[in-house]
Specification:
The protein is α/β, with parallel strands linked by helices. It has 3 domains: 49 residues, 434 Repressor (Amino-terminal Domain), CATH 1.10.260; 130 residues, 3-Layer(aba) Sandwich (Rossmann fold), CATH 3.40.50; 132 residues, Response regulator (Rossmann fold), CATH 3.40.50. The chain contains 12 helices and 11 strands. The strands form 2 sheets. Strands 7-6-8-9-10-11 form a 6-stranded mixed beta sheet, with helices on both faces. Strands 2-1-3-4-5 form a 5-stranded parallel beta sheet, sandwiched between helices. The radius of gyration is 24 Å and the shape is globular.
């Protein structure tokens, strides 16, 4: 049982004798399971107290850089700002850099500018392209941890990924849609904001795998590069619907959901099932209106917490637990969580 504390301190924290604690720490026989658990809990509490003392009053400035639709960046900003309060007295000051569409060269320029100006960490949602990975490597060499958010850069020098298992999310969407329309004629419209994002690619891979293995009678039509904006996504959806009258379901990976719905309505085509991602304000409204059936949601505050902890771990190596993947939840109109 690894630890760095004096036996007497552990004994005081656990409310046990030093002899008993010594028996537990050295793995001697005759110790009850409950006693061992008390010692473990005492060590965990001492570690927490040590971490709190080390970070008390510290200020961490971090930069959140995202290429994403405004509806999602608004949700991310709210999550990060809410999570800041839970880390007091440690202070996180967040600087947000959001754009709906950015060229890779613009993102690289921004990342390099942040690196040269100085920061304690960067949280990044960006395409998985070589020039972005190179900018991440430059930040890492400068001692700046980069945390990828909701879409990963697995072949980069990023410090951690904060988000859900995107492949599992795509598999979940395939199950929901497959169970709904299996055995009936139909085709699924899969929408991506861009093929450059690894997270969206992982969702599509998971989706196609389950459809191919379990629901092989269901076809898939993909549209991409609408960047999650209503105008571009709506145009792409309208073209796809006009070209194939069997499309009767939607898996929206990339957003623009109101525009997709409008395209179906304009064509006079019903949708048997619509599965979307992210519990932003738009999807909340669409769920409440029963215009979409399911939203695959993961807690952005959990992602923010993972990002903060990763930044702290660079300053306090070995004292902060590593980030973990967020759980994917299936949200319906009947289990819609409060907006707060």
């Amino acid at each position: 049982m690894a630890h760095i504390f004096l036996v007497k301190d552990i004994a005081f924290q656990a409310g046990l004798s030093t002899a008993t604690v010594d028996r537990v720490l050295n793995g001697r026989s005759g110790v009850r399971r409950q006693t061992e658990m008390r010692v473990r809990a005492a060590i965990a509490e001492l570690e927490k107290q040590q971490t709190d003392a080390a970070t008390s009053g510290r200020v961490f400035a971090i930069d959140i850089v995202m290429e994403t639709p405004e509806r999602f960046s608004t949700a991310v900003r709210a999550a990060f700002e809410a999570e800041v309060a839970t880390f007091l007295p440690t202070i996180f000051r967040c600087r947000f850099h959001f754009a709906e569409v950015m060229k890779p060269a613009e993102l690289v320029q921004l990342l390099d500018r942040i690196r040269l100006r100085g920061t304690n960490g960067i949280v990044l949602k960006a395409p998985d392209v070589p020039e972005i990975a190179a900018a991440v490597a430059r930040a890492d060499r400068a001692g700046i941890p980069v945390v990828t958010l909701v879409t990963d850069l697995p072949n980069s020098a990023r410090a951690a990924y904060a988000g859900a298992d995107n492949r599992a999310a795509g598999e979940t969407a395939a199950y929901l849609i497959g169970e709904c329309i299996s055995g009936m004629p139909g085709r699924v419209l899969v929408t991506l904001s861009s093929g450059r994002f690894r997270g969206e690619e992982e969702r599509e891979i998971g989706f196609r795998r389950i459809i191919r293995e379990r629901y092989h009678e269901i076809g898939v039509t993909e549209i991409s590069d609408g960047h999650g904006t209503d105008a571009a996504t709506g145009t792409l959806a309208a073209r796809a619907i006009a070209a194939d009258e069997t499309i009767n379901a939607v898996y929206s990976i990339g957003g623009g959901n109101r525009a997709v719905l409008a395209a179906f309505e304009a064509a006079g085509r019903p949708i048997r099932i619509f599965v979307a991602h992210d519990l932003d304000a738009e999807n909340r409204a669409l769920l409440a209106e029963r215009r979409i059936g399911f939203v695959l949601h993961h807690d952005l505050r959990s992602d923010a917490r993972s990002a903060f902890r990763t930044v702290m771990s660079r300053a306090l190596p070995g004292r902060i637990a590593p980030a973990s993947l967020s759980a994917v939840e299936i949200i319906t109109p009947y289990n819609l969580p409060s907006a707060g």
